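Can anyone check this?
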Amino acid sequence: MTTTAPAPEATVPAPSATTPAPAPARPGPPPRPRPLAVLVATGVSTTALLLLVALGTVLHHPLLIPPLAASMALVAASPELPLSQPRSVIGGQLLSALAGFAVLAVAGPGLWSAAVAGGLALGVMMLARAPHSPAAATAVIVALGSPPFWTFTGLLLASCVLLVVVGLLAARAGRRRYPVYWY
């Protein structure tokens, strides 16, 4: 008669109470920028915004609106981000304005309309692959202020092109790459 030995039991290491799993590394703040980079970004941004004011003065229409200041901050300080590319700056701003005008046409001006326009602008920008967070505020401005369509849209387009051109010239002067892509 032959006897068979029982199969060896599979051993599973017991969890150790003394060595917990390493916690994932938490990202810290971005590295401190070089002083020259801060100076250049600040100068480029200020120049572009002053150009908007000067052009607006000549045209007798205000061109400097808060979302454009935020747009220029992205272009000047983080030209490599998708949010800073011409497709997003120009396309995102125009699509958001159109979203604001659409909500305005359906619901009229007001705070409720502005809230819907800001949210709708995000969805439209995402579908168009032209994300630009400052542009959601443009939709809010349209839904609150009810500006004339053609005047506002034309001036917004001109302003966005100016911001991109200043970003492009600054990148060429500083030997940086902007834009990373056009469309």
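Reply from J.R.: I decoded it. The helical segments are 35-59, 66-77, 86-107, 111-127, 134-145, 149-173.
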